Amino acid sequence: xxxxxxxMKRSLEPWQDPNAEPYIQVESITKRYDSxxxxxxxxxxxxKEELFALLGGSGCGKTSLLRILAGFEKPTSGRxxxxxxxxxxxxxxxxxxxxxxxxxxxxxxxTVFQNIAFGLKQESLARxxxxxxxxxxxxxxxxSSYADRKPDQLSGGQKQRVALARSLVKRPKLLLLxxxxxxxxxxxxxxxxxxxxxxQEKVGxxxxxxxxxxxxxxTMSTRMAIMESGHIRQVGVPHDVYEFPNSRFVAEFIGSMNxxxxxxxxEENDHVLIDSPDAGCLIYATHVGALPVGANxxxxxxxxxxxxxxxxxxxxxxxxxGIVSEIAYLGDISIxxxxxxxxxxxxxxxxNLLRLxxxxxxxxDEVYLFWRAENGVLLTV
Length: 381
Hints:
- By secondary structure, the chain is an alpha+beta fold.
- It has helices at 4-7, 62-70, 112-122, 127-140, 156-168, 186-203, 214-220, 238-243, 248-253; strands spanning 24-33, 36-46, 51-55, 77-82, 85-86, 97-100, 174-178, 206-211, 223-228, 231-236, 258-267, 271-276, 281-286, 296-301, 307-309, 319-329, 333-339, 345-351, 366-370, 377-379.
């Protein structure tokens, strides 16, 4: 019988295990269109059964990378391997890769059953096998009773599920999803995100999701890559990318962030002290690694880590004050915009445990803002 502490031990995730073999390998991919470089020496390792997100703004290169994985584009240099096989020069129809397009691209004259069966018929599979596979797919997306309907008789969410089933029915090694929820309204999009994750876990196929929606990537992915101007800026699990951004770009791209500039005036093994005219206070931040006195740094603090009080807390570190200039009421939270003496605006988000009219803090009030030492993330790039 295992000891209690043994039964609670967690195995390493594949990306944490130095002995794990990547399932998808993107090796030094560069893509140029005439004089413009869409991708610049991209390398990436993705593991079997991951739901991996490529996240970035318009023109960052995420769709170019997806099209190269699908075989619709050829890289200028570099190669792609799936399960150890180099597929760089293999045409799309010979790759074990399916792609689900943003528009869903369903055939309007075909029924749901026929749409899902189309790819299998192209492969000349026997009719009984086609029917078996299609019905399995319909059960998976919970749409068996819709088999005889045409696409124009379906809602947006139902069309999305049919497109997903058509992509999965061929049992690919890799499924690529290009902004799959873009056409859905917010409520349906949130519901569909969880449905898609559950389906991916059931079928055990590796998914790569391209999206510009941060919330979508954070909700759905096992890991994600933040892209900008043809480069990958950071790869990690959503929690790590959010809590520990490795650059100012990532810090500002993912969620909201307060950023103060300053100079290191004290450095110890476990912390640094930063003089920040921006913040109007000394910032004490936990830190591991060398950061010399005199170095220019940025300190990033999430709005939800900032506390508000009308009375000053003890000490003069990690505490500043200002005037409430705006309050944004968002239902579950309210965001307070506070103007500091430096002219900089600091955001603090608080859960709405009380009605807004019952709050002590309101517009034009002078307030103190403070945070814990471990909540400041130091950025040098």
